[in-house]
Amino acid sequence: MSGRPHNSDDTREPAVTRPGFGRAEVYRGRLDEHGRLLPTRPVGRLLAALRERLRSPGERAERELDLRLAGCGRGLERTEHVAVVSPKGGVGKTTCTLIAGDTLARHLHLRCVAVDANPDYGTLGSLAPDRSRSDRSLADLLRADREPVAPGELRPYISPLASGLHVLAAPPAAEAMAALTEEHYGRLVELLGRFYELILLDLGTGLTGPLARFALHRADQAVVVATPEWVTAERVLAALGEIQGRGVEGQLTLVLNQAPARETADRQLIESAFREADVARRVVIPYDPRLRQMLDAGAYDPAGLPRQTRTAIKQLGLAVAEGLA
Ligand SMILES: Nc1ncnc2c1ncn2[C@@H]1O[C@H](COP(=O)(O)OP(=O)(O)OP(=O)(O)O)[C@@H](O)[C@H]1O
Ligand SMILES: [Mg+2]
Q1: In angstroms, how far is CA 293 from the centroid of its own chain?
Q2: Ligand 1, atom 12: nearest CA belongs to which residue?
Q3: What is the dihedral of CA 169, 259, 293, 119, to 10 degrees?
Q4: Closest CA to 285 of 69, 113, 73, 103
């Protein structure tokens, strides 16, 4: 996380430490570069080094990602908004909203809510496990007699995931959703902003509807989702300029989702076109039937996914985390 000054270090009283008695002096040579305490005994160090050497390249890459994610984990000064968009339907907007939000809640411990802002039968709420799924929606929250003033009062509307991510569903009836205006969303986002550090907005297909316009205008960053077919990738690449023009300058993550495991010539061509796109970050997420099944069963658990998929999901989380102020 870079950009604006993040915490109030400048105004904080400096820690009072006697000269030569700082923690750095006491623990010199005993902490690694990530601040973890190294084993004290030489044999312990030797075993730790051996364990490190025995890790597979995949394990090492994932561990590196975990450390980088943990390094991003500090609170945000103000609520940030992430819009997940695509000019095409069915590409994985809802999936990316859930897995990115889950990663940020899990690894950065952010107070994070994913909101179904799809005006057309959104599915985000259905991805929450049955046992913790709320049957209320964002429309119910907006209709509540009294605005929640404490986090506990929000709970009846929220479906919590094991990671700590909260999900706010769309109303099941399309007419109820259609009745919601930009003003309603403005109020909703304002209300949620009192309780959450990060709001992810899972949008419907397209960029020109009032909701997409509102979300892109409001967003601090956008995640733009494509799949590796020419028709979709071409549309998404064409839409990037339009998205950037809506004020989400420089803060784009481009996701190539449902990528086939095999490096086909057309996938390579699409990936190279994506590499040339003027976006801050790019992530490729493989097509994974296990992920699809988990989502459908309301049983999303990254630990149960193949490492390749889990690593790609963490890369998406890291991309969003690095875009936070
Ligand atoms: N990487 C993936 N591997 C396997 N299945 C995936 C992957 N990403 C998404 N899916 C599956 O593809 C389907 C569509 O995904 P999703 O609902 O996230 O798309 P969407 O863009 O939100 O669709 P819509 O435009 O209808 O809102 C879902 O069944 C989802 O589980
Ligand atoms: Mg969707």
Answers
A1: 20
A2: 92
A3: 20
A4: 103
Q: For residue 88, give the ligand nearest its CA.
A: 1
pTM (predicted TM-score): 0.87
CA of 117 to the centre of ligand 2 (A): 9
Domain assignments of the chain as residue spans, ordered by start: 20-69, 79-323
Give the residues across from 82 on adjacent strands: 200, 221
Rounded to an integer, what distance in angstroms lies between the CA atom of residue 282 and that of residue 46?
38
> In this structure, which residue's CA is closest to atom 18 in ligand 1?
92
**Cβ contact 219:82 at 8 Å:** yes
Closest ligand 1 atom to 257 CA: 1
Rounded mean pLDDT, 101-105: 97
pLDDT tens per residue, range 239-248: 988 888 777 7
Q: Which ligand is nearest to the CA of 127?
A: 1
Per-residue model confidence as pLDDT tens digits over 71-93 = 887 778 899 999 999 999 999 99
Element (H, E) at 285: strand 281-286
Ligand nearest to the CA of 205: 1
Calpha distance 95→127 (Å, rounded):
9
The token pair that represents 28 in the structure block: 């010199």
Specify the CATH class of 79-323 in words: alpha beta
pLDDT digits (tens, 9 = 90+) for 24-64: 788 888 887 767 788 888 888 888 888 878 888 888 899 99
Question: Ligand 1 site: residues with CB under 6 angstroms?
Answer: 86, 89-95, 118, 123, 204-205, 257-258, 285, 287-288, 291-292, 295
- Residue having the nearest C-alpha atom to atom 25 of ligand 1: 89
Query: Averaged over 97-123, what is the pLDDT?
Result: 95
Distance from residue 157's CA to the centre of ligand 1 (Å)? 24
Residue at 128: amino acid letter = A
Q: Whose CA is nearest to atom 11 of ligand 1?
A: 292
In 86-242 the beta strands, taken as DSSP E runs, fall at 112-117, 159-160, 166-168, 198-203, 221-226
Among protein residues, the one with the nearest Cα to ligand 1's atom 30 is 292
Classify residue 171 by its DSSP letter: P
